[in-house]
């Protein structure tokens, strides 16, 4: 019996049948003529049949060979089409629910544009966002329960987590229109003395800013702390509070409520926003397509 794993022998059998001789079969398969002859010899030994009988310039298949060839062609077509070629992905037809991990800021910054593009190129697809801690996130990426992570996640350090930088981001200040400190410039003295609103949403961005303040010796007069960004616009609009927050969020609020942005009087380092995925899905067609979509929408 032909060893189950030696599919190349079956390819030689089919090629000899189609071309009529060993030399032409070897050329079709891209192997040497001695290699094709050796494969035929192994097949004859395994099947206990000559398989081909020379008739003039051609080799004619025996009944045993014809019985094998019919199934061989079918099996090899299935292997080449469904296994070796790999799965295909058609965004126009997929109904897959893509799962994306975002912070609250990430949802404000990324989600509208991403969802709009997704609906345009994959109209039947669905999108779900979640928020997880780094340990749970690594596990869910490995298991395929999360397709990608988007934002500032410096704790995703597992060597099997791949990442791609999309663009750099920075922080700015926001205050209400008509605020006593509103103007073109904000002094460091006024900045420190002002009543500050601080958003502590659990993201590493705030920790980065806290570390920067500690390193420079700058102390802010924080009089109100909140865990969410949803209340920020109304709090700023109706008070003399000032808040430091991501520029894209501040710009968004400045277009919808009576607030304005002003540059902080300190040099706050920019930080990179990235997308992350697991090595297991590096070549997965659906994941590759989703990552390319994210790149097309957001990469600099």
Protein architecture, described:
By secondary structure, the chain is α/β, with parallel strands linked by helices. The protein folds into three domains: 77 residues, Arc Repressor Mutant, subunit A (Orthogonal Bundle), CATH 1.10.10; 99 residues, Periplasmic binding protein-like II (D-Maltodextrin-Binding Protein, domain 2, 3-Layer(aba) Sandwich), CATH 3.40.190.10; 99 residues, D-Maltodextrin-Binding Protein, domain 2, CATH 3.40.190.10. It is built from eleven helices and twelve strands. The strands form three sheets. The chain has a five-stranded mixed β-sheet with strand order 4-3-5-12-6. It is rod-shaped. It starts with 6 loop residues before the first helix and ends with a helix.
Brief write-up:
With 300 residues, this protein is α/β, with parallel strands linked by helices.
**Average of per-residue pLDDT values:** 89
Strands of the widest sheet, in order across it, are: 4-3-5-12-6
Strand content: 15-25%
Structural class: alpha/beta
- The CATH architecture category of the largest domain equals 3-Layer(aba) Sandwich
Report low-confidence residues grouped into runs of 5 or more: 1-5
Radius of gyration: 32 Å
Task: Name the helicity range.
Answer: 40-55%
CATH superfamily of the largest domain: Periplasmic binding protein-like II
Please describe the biggest sheet, giving its number of strands, its sense, and whether it closes into a barrel: 5 strands, mixed
CATH topology of the largest domain: D-Maltodextrin-Binding Protein, domain 2
Family: Belongs to the LysR transcriptional regulatory family.
Keywords: DNA-binding, Transcription, Transcription regulation
Protein name: LysR family transcriptional regulator
GO molecular function: DNA binding; DNA-binding transcription factor activity
């Amino acid at each position: 019996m032909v060893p189950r794993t030696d599919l190349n022998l079956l390819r030689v059998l089919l090629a000899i049948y189609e071309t009529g001789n060993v030399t032409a079969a070897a050329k079709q398969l891209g192997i040497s003529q001695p290699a094709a002859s050796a494969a035929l010899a192994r097949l004859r030994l395994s099947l206990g049949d000559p398989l081909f009988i020379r008739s003039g310039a051609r080799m004619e298949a025996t009944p045993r060979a014809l019985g094998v060839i019919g199934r061989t062609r079918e099996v090899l077509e299935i292997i080449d089409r469904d296994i070796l070629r790999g799965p295909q992905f058609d965004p126009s037809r997929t109904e897959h629910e893509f799962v994306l991990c975002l912070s609250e800021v990430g949802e404000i910054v990324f989600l509208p544009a991403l969802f709009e593009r997704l609906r345009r190129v994959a109209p039947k697809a669905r999108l779900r966002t979640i928020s997880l801690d780094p340990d749970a996130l690594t596990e869910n990426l490995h298991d395929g329960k999360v397709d990608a992570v988007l934002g500032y996640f410096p704790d995703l350090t597992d060597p099997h987590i791949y990442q791609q930088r999309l663009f750099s981001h920075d922080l700015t200040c926001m205050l209400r229109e008509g605020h006593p400190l509103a103007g073109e410039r904000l002094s460091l003295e006024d900045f420190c003395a002002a009543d500050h609103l601080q958003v502590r949403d659990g993201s590493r961005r705030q920790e980065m800013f806290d570390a920067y303040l500690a390193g420079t010796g700058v102390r802010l007069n924080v009089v109100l702390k909140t865990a969410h960004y949803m209340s920020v616009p109304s709090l700023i609009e109706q008070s003399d509070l000032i808040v430091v927050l991501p520029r894209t969020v501040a710009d968004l609020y400045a277009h919808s409520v009576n607030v304005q942005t002003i540059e902080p009087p300190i040099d706050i380092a920019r930080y990179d926003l990235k997308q992350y995925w697991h090595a297991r899905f590096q070549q997965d067609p659906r994941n590759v397509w989703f990552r390319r979509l994210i790149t097309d929408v957001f990469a600099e």
